């Protein structure tokens, strides 16, 4: 409706300009009022016939139909395709906005969003819940929910919630423990070790909790050592001669000599190419492919102007010679000299 209000004002200004020198006194007032009425009725007609009125009626009817169901029942209906995800989200927003300070409703809403992979929506709901019940324990609880969802975006949100706790309470043991778990799940074992070692300072030696954390640190160190071998290293030898500011992303790929989709892909920031890059089996894209069993492949580094994985005209790239196979911890030196044509 705001748009139509602006249109009305524009119409009045236009009328003032067009008729200002033609109509005077009562005639001018009559013209203004007539145009105002015409614009208002026209706006209402457009509003009605374009479907906004019908959309409101449909939303009201849907709310009446679902009003007797709790949030879990609503989610089950969406799971069973009895209502669409869009209908579910509309009903959930309507319910929570009608009771904006209800912590339990926002919490449950956030968990339902996570269930359907709506990470950004879940974060908004959890933020409202935190506003209703601000505490370190609340943020840690929601960080755990994000970690259980397991997507990269969810891990980032978990990290952010835990960092907020540690910013205010650097020695908060629950946050230190959970941040270590968060990084461990992302296979950032060194970061996990750092947080758990910090936590050990606040635990009494010889206790069960001290021993348990020590065991977690030992496991992370074993996996870190394994990860140090379970990769190939890629060094771009001519990085200093490249105008990297022209490119948004760099992609490291393993391709089969016969073509087809890449076996493995890793996206990196172009500014990091001055450092050796690692590619691991976790970057394999095709199901059932073992990076170390792949035959007749080559490693490629491509600079993308658009940031898209698909090669485009003007992208620059370089690649190794054909390799019979890849060996863990092997280092490849590549010069980026070719252009996609």
Structural overview:
There is one protein chain. With 341 residues, this protein is an alpha+beta fold. It folds into three domains: 2-50; 58-228, Serine Threonine Protein Phosphatase 5, Tetratricopeptide repeat; 232-339. It is built from twelve helices and eight strands. It has helices spanning 2-19, 25-49, 52-66, 71-79, 85-97, 103-115, 119-132, 136-149, 152-168, 173-185, 189-200, 208-229; strands spanning 232-236, 249-256, 264-268, 277-279, 297-304, 316-319, 331-334, 338-339. The strands form two sheets. The protein has a five-stranded antiparallel β-sheet, with no helix packed on it. Helix 3 (52-66) packs across helix 5 (85-97), helix 9 (152-168) runs antiparallel to helix 10 and helix 11 runs antiparallel to helix 12 (208-229). The mean pLDDT is 83.
List keywords for this structure.
alpha+beta, Serine Threonine Protein Phosphatase 5, Tetratricopeptide repeat, 3 domains, three-stranded mixed β-sheet, 8 strands, 11% strand, globular
> Which percent range fits the helix content?
40-55%
Secondary-structure arrangement, i.e. CATH architecture of the largest domain: Alpha Horseshoe
Quaternary structure classification: single chain
Walk across the major sheet and give the strand order.
3-2-5-6-8
Say what the CATH topology of the largest domain is. Answer: Serine Threonine Protein Phosphatase 5, Tetratricopeptide repeat
Net shape: globular
Amount of beta strand: 5-15%
Radius of gyration: 30 Å
Order of helices and strands: HHHHHHHHHHHHEEEEEEEE
At the first level of CATH, the class of the largest domain is Mainly Alpha
Label the structural class. alpha+beta
Give the termini distance in whole angstroms: 50 Å
Question: Runs with pLDDT <50, length 5+?
Answer: none
Mean model confidence by pLDDT: 83
Tally of contiguous helical segments? 12
Number of strands: 8
What number of domains? 3
**What does the largest sheet look like?**
5 strands, antiparallel
In the CATH hierarchy, what is the superfamily of the largest domain?
Tetratricopeptide repeat domain
């Amino acid at each position: 409706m705001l748009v139509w209000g602006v249109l009305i004002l524009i119409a009045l200004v236009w009328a003032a300009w067009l008729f200002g020198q033609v109509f005077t006194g009562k005639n001018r007032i009559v013209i203004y009022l007539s145009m105002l009425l015409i614009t208002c009725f026209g706006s209402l007609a457009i509003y009605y016939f374009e479907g906004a009125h019908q959309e409101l009626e449909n939303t009201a009817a849907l709310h009446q139909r679902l009003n007797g169901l709790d949030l879990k029942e609503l989610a089950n209906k969406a799971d069973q395709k009895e209502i669409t995800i869009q209908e579910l989200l509309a009903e959930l927003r309507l319910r929570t906005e009608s009771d904006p300070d209800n912590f339990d409703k926002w919490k449950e809403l956030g968990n339902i969003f996570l269930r359907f992979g709506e990470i950004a929506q879940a974060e908004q709901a959890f933020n409202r819940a935190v506003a209703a019940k601000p505490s370190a324990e609340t943020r840690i609880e929601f960080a755990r929910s994000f970690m259980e969802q397991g997507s990269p975006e969810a891990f980032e949100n978990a990290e952010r919630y835990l960092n907020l706790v540690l910013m205010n309470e650097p020695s908060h043991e629950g946050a230190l423990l959970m941040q270590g778990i968060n990084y461990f799940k992302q296979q950032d074992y060194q970061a996990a070790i750092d947080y758990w070692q910090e936590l050990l300072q606040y635990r009494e030696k010889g206790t069960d909790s001290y021993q348990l954390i020590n065991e977690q640190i030992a496991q992370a160190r074993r996996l870190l050592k394994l990860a140090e071998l379970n990769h190939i290293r890629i060094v771009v030898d001519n990085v200093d001669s490249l105008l990297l500011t022209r490119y948004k992303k760099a992609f490291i790929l393993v391709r089969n000599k016969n073509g087809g989709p890449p076996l493995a892909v890793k996206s990196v920031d172009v500014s990091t190419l001055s450092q050796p890059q690692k590619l691991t089996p976790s970057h394999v894209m095709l199901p059932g492919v073992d990076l170390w069993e792949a035959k007749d492949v080559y490693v490629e580094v491509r600079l993308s102007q658009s940031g898209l994985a698909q090669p485009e005209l003007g992208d620059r790239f370089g690649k190794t010679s054909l390799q019979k196979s890849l060996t863990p911890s092997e280092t490849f030196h590549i010069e980026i000299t070719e252009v996609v044509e």
